[in-house]
Structure prediction request, 170 residues.
Amino acid sequence: MLAASLLGACSPALNWRETRPKDIDILLTFPCKPQQIVQTVQLAGSMVKMSMTGCATDNMTFALAHADMKDPTKVGAALAALHQAAVRNVAGNVTQSQPTDVAHATRGLADALDLRITGKSPTGQPLRERVVLFAQGTQVFQATTFANRSQYKDDAAQTFANSIRLPGGS
Prediction:
């Protein structure tokens, strides 16, 4: 929900473009020109700078949240906190959950998940949300797409989720 309130709308059509958010070693494809904000938040008991890169187009919001936990022992707790917040922020229910399949992401983290969530907007409108939680080293990420249930496009959410590319060798 933070992404929707802080990031402005883009053009009404999906215009996919590769984006490397400032100061983050990740490449992904957004369907509109994203904006980025950075704020200090508490996550897993630590104050961290969290960046939010995202845009809204065609009645959907696309966003990437990122934070460097600095301490590898806090990564699991940070992903768990992001997972809980994603569900809580939309008073939602997880309808599907599976391990994240992002190449070069840290494996074996309990909350590194690809989630489908149904919930409600602050005005009570039914929402659908897809949240992909993953980490690499001390970096934690949350890629999110959401929209009113009737306007949610699975193919756009899938394109966004499949576009995530972290650095790494074979």
User: Anything to note?
Assistant: Strands lie at 17-19, 28-30, 35-43, 46-57, 60-68, 93-99, 113-120, 126-136, 139-148. The domain at 2-162 is CATH 3.40.1000.10 (Protein Transport Mog1p; Chain A). The two ends are 36 Å apart (CA to CA). Helices lie at 2-6, 75-88, 154-162.
